[in-house]
Fold each of these.
Amino acid sequence: MRVRAPATSANLGPGFDVFGLALREPYDVVEAVEIPEKTARIKVMEGYQVPVDPRENTGGYVVLSMIRDFDLDKGLELRIWKRIRPGSGLGSSAATAAAAAYLVNEIFDLNLGLEDLVHYASLGEVVSAGVPHLDNVAPAIYGGFTIVSSRDPLKIYGIDPPSEIAVVVALPEIEKGSTKKAREVVPKEVSISDLVHNVGKASVLAAGMALKDLEMIKAGMADVVVEPARSRAGIIPHYEELKSLGEALGAGVAVSGAGPAVIGVIEKASASKLASSFKEFYKSKGCGCEVYVTEPGPGVSKLEER
């Protein structure tokens, strides 16, 4: 069985560890083949290299966890076409983990619901980030825009974004370091004024998604806690300039997850202009940049069976 596993963008500004968005491009392809041993095997067929030890691969870790919890009598070999760049801020590790949870559920007829799939996919994030965070794996499973409202008990809401949204992704050739490091610089305490600001902006963004109001979504993409802290730590270069660039072009701009990817949300008719502006901006900084013009997309979905 083969699946398409999407890139995702987490946080969208003020929604740290809560908001996530599935993207139509880029995506990984993951194929699973049953094996008689109760274990996981990993093969990278093409694209970016990721760990092949199943205990160090997010998908392999998910397969091992589900074999254990459901006492499965067989295992899976995962064959990965890794098109989402690891360490990009586009949920590369989550795509593999979500694909693995989906494939185990389908192949072994476990009949798990979406929230259970998110739970198992999140276990894979321990391998890459040190904690089982949900903001990438939730949209990777659900598709569209997701809100993780509670972890215990797990509660996730899925919302279809407005159809006129374009998402422009700028992926600069910058090494941000590990996601674990990016999480370590997040403030442990915030002022009440910063809390009020982020709650207000996050509310506007979520309401904009539900009401299909793109201007509300753009207005809500303003964080005063996590993104500035990561900028001060040197993890997000040129942060203030990028926010100003987006504002000048009428786009909502946010760092995608822990970066270095940056996303701009804008009307589809203006997407190419924003893409060119992102590319020129990074060129002016002496930095190469890959740009995707995409839109919200579905979660993990089945491709052709073999």
Amino acid sequence: MEKDFVFVEKLKNGDNNAYTLLMNDYYKNLCGYANLFTKDPSKSEDIVQNIFVKIWIYRKKIDPNISIKKYLYKSVYNEFIDQYRKNKSVISLEEKYLKVIDTIIDDNSLDIEKLMMNVNREIDKLPEKCKRVFILNKKEGLTHNEIAEYLQISTKTVESHITRAFKILNQKLGNKIKSILIIIFDFKLSN
């Protein structure tokens, strides 16, 4: 926290090196984080670039007592919501989904990148057929019927694989699994 305080003070004083370091340290990860929402790498980069421009313009208003990492991730989230509101009604985004995302961002003990790496690592460890069905559904967005047709299996088998995947992931990753899967795969809370 003290490191953040000194860093933010340098940034507030117009230190170009601090700004460059901030971009070098966070740009790529913030783009990846924004892409979880937008599902569009160019829109994600636009969001992150907007954030960095705003940080420079409003640098004197940054509170040096907050975590710079938390500030950046929260800024990306807020920028996404602002852009989303311009394009669509916020009502179409599930309120529960937004609350879960907000809770995850506000959890200081949570390292989002590390958690996402753990989730992806555990998905890779799933039994092969189970993993394939799970990825087709959650990452590729195919429906159960589309997967069944594509893999030439029954929809019940597809459902069975997805249920098994969730059970395994829940056992391995615990209670935060549903929250992070909501962000990573944009799946509905009813799953």
